[in-house]
Design brief:
Chain B: Keywords: 2Fe-2S, Cell membrane, Disulfide bond, Electron transport, Iron, Iron-sulfur, Membrane, Metal-binding, Oxidoreductase, Respiratory chain, Transmembrane, Transmembrane helix, Transport. Chain B: Pfam families: QcrA_N, Rieske. Chain B: It comes from Streptomyces microflavus. The complex is a heterodimer of chains A (548) and B (350). By secondary structure, chain A is mainly alpha-helical. Among the domains of chain A are: 51-303, Up-down Bundle (Cytochrome Bc1 Complex, Chain C), CATH 1.20.810.10; 456-497 and 506-544, no CATH class. Chain A has 20 helices and ten strands. In chain A, strand 6 and strand 7 form a beta hairpin. The longest helix of chain A has 40 residues, at 416-455. With 350 residues, chain B is α+β, with helices and mostly antiparallel strands. A five-stranded antiparallel beta sheet of chain B has the order 4-5-6-7-12. In chain B, strands 8-9-10-11 form a four-stranded antiparallel beta sheet, with no helix packed on it. The chains are: A mainly alpha (548), B alpha+beta (350). Strand 5 of chain A pairs antiparallel with strand 3 (126-129) of chain B, so a sheet runs across the interface.
Chain lengths: 548, 350
């Protein structure tokens, strides 16, 4: 009671009582320092562009996967103990299966909404990987990986790779005929590793394949180890996005030293928050109308049974393709077998996958550019980079074609042999063709931009001159458009300098420097980029005969 | 890297003024600055703004109704009810209704929020300054000095014995973790070299679970067999069948091109490992006329009339053959184990 008498004195002197929300915030600030954080971030500016949403798709899918995944763990039994099925699904009556498979049937047929949550989980996983893939393409083709964002590019790259393996381990958990075949494939690939292959296989499976352990082991990898690392990487990724501030495309008022857009509160809170619900809603609707991974139609895993048309999830299809089209080379020597037919695809898979991780460092070495870059490149203005990216994607998708060679063969009545040879040849030739074609398209677009700047926009209005000639009226661009189309930087190729120094002594030029100069010429040399119009050129044309 | 060795003047030109910061109005490509804000209809017309408000509220109400629908569907539809819905075909009524109602409940929250942001919240673009990520020189100097002081106080540079032994200890301690992984599984030893097959083991038909007799094997049919004594409810059934699964076909002895294969057969009945030598899928597609078998996983194709050699696909060596004969009761029996490991190749296979 005595406290009541003392409290009014504290609130005296005409001070109003703060609203409840403010008092809660005060309480939190006294312990967590939230006002400092909010000051820096509440009105943080984010630029607007449709392509910036791609990463959000990946982020929200990840949250959806965690939410639905936790629900699934409530019912799933990660056990390979054998049971005989006596549930409501008639075709499986009396069939022997692992508890993992039986509990997945239970989730699908007995738990109300269980099937929906399972399908949302699987669809969200596919969309998560696809979202990361296109997000990485966006970052790559616009050069957003350049300084200071190389580390964040690596975080993103690791998220993609770990996402692939999280997806694979999750896909294997129901222990159905299709996923078990995929695990068998993995085990066969592991066996091909020289010297340690059989040891890794024995340790991973707790003995001979399939054994009784892999579901439980994959389970802890799938629900704890990999998602735990990914959550950490994801938080770090987002912190860096905030810390670096978002990149933006060139445009009037946009410089390398500012960021133009709308504030986090309220616009991006509403847009990004709303977008989470849109992504979740659309995945739920897809899961309502499109079945994914109907494990009940496949049956439980038996190492001596298989179904035709076996396909991994899309993100593993590239590796699958390499394995399918590789000639079966085996070298036997001194009592050992080197199974190159499987080992080379395995190594190639790792190499191709790791190229994107290396690229930012390669490019910055070639350009020698140590400055920060916050203005995005239009893909056309970095022709060689864009062409290399398209070449990589081409190799990836050619591999994907190989991964589905049986489906291509049956759906389009093609010969498997022809598809194999197509993939073998075009895994190498395809990227080269894609590189050349992409680069030419980029250079063509650069020329068009140049023409547009110098001669204006084609209006489509044809004018007949008094002497009968027809001309199209070109409308000059606005100052904003002129600036946007000429804002990109153009590097000059690195030169090695004279062969001899001032004393006539031959200079030492290391092979590394020569390679760098060659690459630099390939990136920025003559015919590898179109010089952007200069102010003088523009003035000469617009003042000389501006009507044209 | 080696970029320092390249003369400075050959580095790409640093274009400090490439973006913004234009020196004079003389430049036709100068940055004209942020364009003026274009008002939306909602900024000018209060009635339009009210319409937007109603649209947003309508979407939020739709979301609420969808959630009510979700709960209703959960209660109403039995979990096993199948209905026909065009164009999706026969679908689970519960999955369909729960998914759609949940989907719409979520979607309309998102659509409402985005519509609200786009029509009613300010869309004025404002610039915010960026600051270099790199610390200013004086900060860096301070950090370096602090680090130096700390390192000096620890004496780690001076007392090399401490430093060396510390690194040694830190390098060794993870070994305990590695050692702990040893019991994840047994050593490979010869485990991949042998199967359950042995001399005198009967071939059991996997469809009928009866011992196979030569008269049961017709030309043109593919039979799967496993060794007698292996029960489906055995603890290690899966691991054993993964190696012991057998394919039996009958080929006219004259059609068998490989001499050893003919010797190891019984009156043209040949037994090959069912496990593909590529990565271990079970082979299950048989072409009667050509005696080719195909693995459906990666399309390796083997010619069973010619020592099961690989005629197409990524497999690296033929399927191992099991030597079979007939015992005194007229049943097919194995005359030993496979003489080479079955399934995919491995380093120790030889």
């Amino acid at each position: 009671m005595s406290t009541e008498t003392t409290t009014p004195s504290a609130g005296q002197a005409g001070q109003r009582k703060a609203p409840a929300g403010e008092r809660v915030a005060d309480w939190a600030d006294g312990r967590l320092g939230i006002y400092g954080l909010a000051k820096a971030n509440m009105r943080k500016i984010f630029p607007d562009h449709w392509s910036f949403m791609l990463g959000e798709v990946a982020l929200y899918s990840f949250i959806i996967i965690i939410l639905t995944g936790v629900y699934l763990t409530l019912f799933f039994q990660p056990s390979m103990n054998e049971v005989v099925y006596h549930g409501p699904y008639e075709p499986m009556q009396g069939i022997r299966m692992s508890e993992a498979y039986a509990s997945t049937l239970k989730i699908s047929f007995e738990v109300r909404g269980g099937l929906l949550v399972r399908q949302i989980h699987h669809w969200a996983a596919l969309i998560f990987l696809a979202g990361m893939f296109v997000h990485m393409m966006r970052v790559f083709f616009t050069g957003a990986f350049r300084k200071p964002r190389e580390v964040n590019w690596l975080f993103g790259f690791l998220l993609f790779v770990l996402g692939m393996f999280t997806g694979f381990t999750g896909y294997s958990l129901p222990d159905d005929l299709l996923s078990g075949t995929g695990v068998r494939f993995t085990q066969g690939a592991i066996l091909s590793v020289p010297i340690v292959g059989t040891y890794i296989s024995m340790f991973l499976f707790g003995g001979e394949f399939p054994g009784h352990d892999f579901v439980a082991r994959f389970y802890s990898i799938h629900i704890l180890l990999l998602p735990g690392i990914m959550l950490g990487l994801l938080v770090a990724h987002l912190i860096l996005v905030f810390y670096h501030k978002h990149t933006q495309f060139a445009g009037p008022g946009k410089t390398n030293k500012n960021v133009v857009g709308m504030p986090l509160l309220p616009v991006y809170m509403a847009k990004a928050g709303g977008f989470f619900f849109l992504v979740f809603g659309i995945i739920a609707i897809i899961s309502a109308i499109a079945t994914i991974n109907p494990i009940w139609a496949l049956g439980p895993y038996r190492p001596d049974q298989v179904s035709t048309g076996a396909q991994p999830d899309w993100y593993m299809g590239f590796a699958e393709g390499l394995v399918r089209v590789m000639p079966g080379w085996e070298i036997v020597f001194w009592g050992h077998t080197l199974n190159l037919g499987v080992f080379i695809p395995l190594v190639l898979f790792g190499l191709v996958l790791s190229l994107p991780a290396v690229y930012p460092f390669l490019e910055s070495w070639i350009t020698g550019d140590k400055r920060e870059h916050h203005i995005l490149d239009r893909p056309r203005n970095a022709p060689t980079r864009t062409a290399l990216g398209v070449a990589w994607i081409t190799a990836y998708f050619i591999g994907l074609v190989g991964g589905g060679n049986d489906l291509w063969a049956t759906h389009f009545h093609l010969s498997l042999n022809a598809i194999s040879w197509f993939v073998r040849i075009f895994f190498f030739a395809g990227p080269v063709i894609a590189f050349i074609v992409t680069k030419r398209i980029c250079l063509g677009l650069q020329r068009r931009d140049r023409d547009k700047v110098l001669h204006g926009r084609e209006t489509g209005i044809i004018k007949r001159l008094p002497h009968g000639e027809f001309v199209e009226i070109h409308e000059p661009l606005s100052p904003g458009q002129l600036h946007t189309l000429t804002a990109h930087e153009q590097y000059k190729p690195v030169e090695l300098g004279p062969e001899v120094d001032e004393n006539g002594v031959k200079r030492k030029i290391s092979p590394v420097q020569k390679v760098r100069a060659k690459l630099s010429k390939g990136y920025f040399g003559e015919n590898n980029q179109i010089a952007k119009p200069t102010a003088e050129e523009y003035k000469e044309i617009s003042e000389g005969h501006g009507h044209h | 890297m080696s970029s320092q060795q390249i003369p400075e003047d050959n580095l790409p030109v640093v274009q400090e003024t490439a973006h913004g910061a234009v020196e004079g109005t003389d430049d036709p490509f100068a940055d004209p600055g942020l364009p003026a804000h274009k008002p939306r209809i909602q900024d000018l017309d209060e009635r339009a703004a009210n319409r937007s408000e109603r649209a947003v509220a309508f979407m939020f109400v739709l979301s609420m109704l969808s959630t009510v629908g979700f709960i209703a569907a959960y209660v109403i539809f039995p979990v096993d009810k199948i209905v026909y819905i065009w164009p999706f075909g026969h679908v689970s009524a519960l999955n369909f209704s729960l998914g759609l109602t949940l989907g719409f409940a979520l979607f309309f929250i998102g659509a409402g929020a985005v519509h609200w942001a786009r029509t009613l919240m300010s869309d004025v673009e404002v610039p915010a300054e960026r600051h270099p990520i790199e610390a200013p020189a004086e900060v860096k100097a301070q950090v370096m000095a602090d680090f130096k002081a700390g390192a000096q106080e620890s004496a780690i540079g001076r007392r090399k014995l401490i430093r060396t032994t510390l690194f040694g200890a830190l390098a060794l301690v993870p070994l305990s973790g590695v050692v702990l992984l040893r019991d994840l599984g047994p050593l490979p030893e010869k485990k991949l070299r042998s199967t359950l097959w042995a001399k005198g083991k009967l071939l059991v038909n996997m469809n009928t679970m009866e011992p196979l007799r030569p008269e049961h094997v017709a030309v043109g049919s593919l039979t799967f067999a496993m060794p007698e004594g292996l029960e489906e409810d055995a603890h290690d059934f899966q691991s054993q069948i993964a190696k012991a699964a057998l394919m039996i076909v009958r080929i006219e002895p004259d059609d068998i091109k490989d001499k050893r294969q003919r010797d190891w057969a019984h009156e043209g009945i040949v037994a090959f490992s069912k496990i593909c030598t590529h990565v271990g899928c079970p082979i299950s597609l048989y072409e009667q006329q050509t005696h080719h078998v195909l693995c459906p996983c990666h399309q390796s194709t083997f010619d069973l009339s010619d020592g099961a050699r690989v005629i197409f696909g990524p497999a690296g060596h033929p399927l191992p053959q099991l030597r079979i004969g007939v015992n005194s009761e007229g049943n097919l029996e194995a005359l030993g184990d496979f003489d080479e490991p079955v399934g995919p190749s491995f380093w120790e296979r030889g």
